[in-house]
Amino acid sequence: MSEIVSKHTVSVLVDNEPGVLARVIGLISGRGYNIDSLTVAEVDAEKHISRITIVAPGTEQTVNKMISQLQRIVPVKRAANVTFEKQGIEREMALVKIVSTGEKRVESMRLSDVFRARVIDTTHDSFVFELNGSPRKIDAFIDLMKPLGLSEVSRTGVVAIARGTEKM
Amino acid sequence: MVNIQMTGAQMVLKAFEDHQVDTIFGYPGGAVLPIYDELAKERDTNQPIRHYLVRHEQGASHSAEGYARSSGKVGVMLVTSGPGVTNAVTGLTDAMMDSIPIVCISGQVPTHLIGTDAFQECDAVGITRPCTKHNWLVKDINDLSRILHEAFYVASSGRPGPVLVDIPKDIQFQTGTYIGPETVKHKSYRPKLKANIDQIDDALKLIADAEKPIFYTGGGVINSGNAAVQLLREFVRLTGFPITSTLQGLGAYPGDDSQFIGMLGMHGTYEANMAMNECDLMINIGARFDDRITGKIDEFSPNSKKIHIDIDPSSINKIVKVDVPLIGDVAHVLEDSIKLWKSKVYKINKSPLKEWWKTIDKWKEKDSLKYASDKNIIKPQHAIQRLYELTKDKDVFVTTEVGQHQMWAAQYYKFSKPNRWITSGGLGTMGFGLPAAIGAQVAHPDKLVIDIAGEASILMCIQEMSTAIQHKLPVKIFIINNQYMGMVRQWQELLHDKRYSHSYTDALPDFVKLAEAYGAKGIRVQKPNELDKAINEMIEYDGPVIFDCVVEQNENVFPMIPSGKAHNEMLLGDETVKEEISDEGKVLV
């Protein structure tokens, strides 16, 4: 098994009941794993099922262990590794605030166009861009904005789903 | 179908009735008064619930464990909010580690006070989340009956474990609809009981081809129930393979049978550990490759194929990578295995097996459990051996505390039936034995129940003597008294150059007087030749006994695999302790 530490995206389907997020997070921290990002929302309002997406660094083996530990939690229905490299699709949204004037302001506007970011708020000295894409694309955009007056960033964390006909 | 109106407190008792609970261990307090009130009202009915009043909630939790471990039923406890819950945490964690089904009902401050730091408020579900299999805070009276039924289901199915239901006091008073258990089904929790039949066949092929096989069985066999125990015995006899057991698994296979080669692990027999090290096929049934068992993990049984039967998928490949995982209940998997073995007419590889037994018999000749006997002072091993010899014809339930006496009990007391050996393995909880013995005695009122204890451990829950007296539970406490926290002293001797830091207990109580103060019988023995008579006196006494067996202070538990060493690097006795234990080993516990 691979000993390389990389980022893994784990999707967890849970019964949406009180404390379920605390159980998932508590298990992950209690067993010494780290979390890079975490998203959670109800995905089936009738059956009260929520989907939690966790991005965690680790070797394939440690992430597999984490997944089987997660499956021990009573309200966890399923847990699976849906990392991009494993035929998964990952998306993230970010809100990026730029505070600048003159040439820098124009340049940030021009680059946002390249990244297909939308302006959702503006003043004479600022923009707030909304940007969707893979985490890497968002990283790249933020890097480019740093010299152009980057002021603040808010990211949703990764959501992921399997490609094709496959279902969790 | 029962759909009737009643109060929350009544629902708790109704759920007990519906789940055949006739015994609970508890301690009253402000936040559970409505439930206790119902218990009082119920006292005059035909079949009142027997409530055993403990002296500390830790006692309630271990008593519930002793009851569950000795009977195979769910143990039930009732505690109040705040300190009631925090005191129960040790027992819940203990049950979690050893997979024991416990339902803990706790009172909580009324819902409108939750989160206000009210008197005796604590975040019970938050505190117990990591030490229960699942827990619930009930916020609506109409959820209560469903949650209670789910609690019993979750505690006892799959890999068993403790659960907690936290019920605010206002919910206990409110009236709502009680739904019967037959209509309640958990939304999603359905543990898999039967293993994949192709994988079973893969396992059987390995078994048929094996030249140096060994069965390595654990508490999972006992948790699976009597059918599993019978099937295990059948399968082991069918194959003629050697079998070893973990601490928790003792009794699943008869300890005095010729195929049983003793317990394995840190203080297991030489032959069991050597066989684990050199086998070519390991059949793990309901054990979990615990660190006390494996020793140094990279040198653990290097040349074997491994089959692992476990109901908990997260146990598979957690510590040791296995070749054939069989996820399912031990009884179901063994039943299918035996059927398939017979229908496919698999045969054992007989001549290599004969050679393998010869090798094992050679290892046996080392007689790793031998010790130097003494005429003037009682050796602890001798005390337990005599206790075994004098009680083996009875159906005895043995509990222990934690430490040297626990290991000696595991080594020298042989169990021929499951559920007779009740010890805190995973968590290693000192103070476990006496309340556990009380629980076992409650489940088996006419049987002999002995807590093999150490003088340090027993003091951790000694208050439960009062419980034993009140409820007329004739438990026998057999204290191996060496005045030291023996296992701590042993490690300090071997690992810390004999610096006995705070492991000697000065000012121990006079255990005979202590027994008498509680209204029990006290017996003290200091000479080997007085031992048998005193043990018989203890057995014959109708009531609780504290037996103070004064033993050699410096005796160590051998054999021993030191921390960070492999199975084939065992220490067999004091004379073999030469090599320094590495710093890496010292870090381990």
Instruction: Sketch the topology of chain A as an H/E string, one letter per element.
Output: EHEEHEEHEEHEE
The description of the largest β-sheet of chain A is: 5 strands, antiparallel
So, the CATH homologous superfamily of the largest domain in chain A?
ACT domain
Total number of strands of chain B = 20
Which CATH class of the largest domain in chain A applies here? Answer: Alpha Beta
SSE diagram, text form:
The complex is a heterodimer of chains A (168) and B (589).
Chain A: E1 6-15, H1 20-30, E2 37-44, E3 49-58, H2 60-70, E4 76-81, E5 88-99, H3 102-114, E6 118-122, E7 126-133, H4 135-145, E8 150-155, E9 159-162
Chain B: E1 3-7, H1 8-18, E2 23-26, H2 33-42, E3 50-53, H3 57-71, E4 75-79, H4 83-97, E5 102-108, H5 124-128, E6 134-137, H6 141-156, E7 162-168, H7 169-173, E8 175-179, H8 197-209, E9 213-217, H9 219-224, H10 226-239, E10 243-245, E11 260-263, H11 270-278, E12 281-285, H12 291-294, E13 305-310, E14 324-327, H13 330-343, H14 350-364, H15 380-391, E15 396-400, H16 404-412, E16 421-422, H17 433-443, E17 448-454, H18 465-470, E18 476-481, H19 486-495, H20 511-518, E19 521-525, H21 531-540, E20 545-550, H22 583-587
Parallel strand pairs in B: 2-3, 2-4, 4-5, 5-7, 6-7, 9-10, 9-12, 10-11, 12-13, 13-14, 15-16, 15-17, 17-18, 18-20, 19-20
Antiparallel strand pairs in B: 1-8
Overview of the structural elements:
The complex is a heterodimer of chains A (168) and B (589). Chain A is 27% helix and 41% strand. Chain A has helices spanning 20-30, 60-70, 102-114, 135-145, and strands spanning 6-15, 37-44, 49-58, 76-81, 88-99, 118-122, 126-133, 150-155, 159-162. Chain A is α+β, with helices and mostly antiparallel strands. In chain A, strand 2 and strand 3 form a beta hairpin. Chain A is elongated, with a radius of gyration of 19 Å. Chain A folds into two domains: 6-86, Alpha-Beta Plaits; 89-160, ACT-like. Chain A, domain 2 (Alpha-Beta Plaits, 2-Layer Sandwich), CATH 3.30.70.1150. With 589 residues, chain B is an alpha/beta fold. Chain B has three domains: 3-183, Rossmann fold; 197-364, TPP-binding domain (Rossmann fold, 3-Layer(aba) Sandwich), CATH 3.40.50.1220; 380-557, Rossmann fold (3-Layer(aba) Sandwich). Chain B is globular and about 70 Å long. Classes of the chains: A alpha+beta (168), B alpha/beta (589). Chain A binds chain B through residues 15, 18-19, 22-23, 26-27, 30, 64-65, 68-69, 71-75, 77, and chain B through 125-126, 129-130, 133-135, 137, 139, 154, 159, 186-189, 312-314, 316-318.
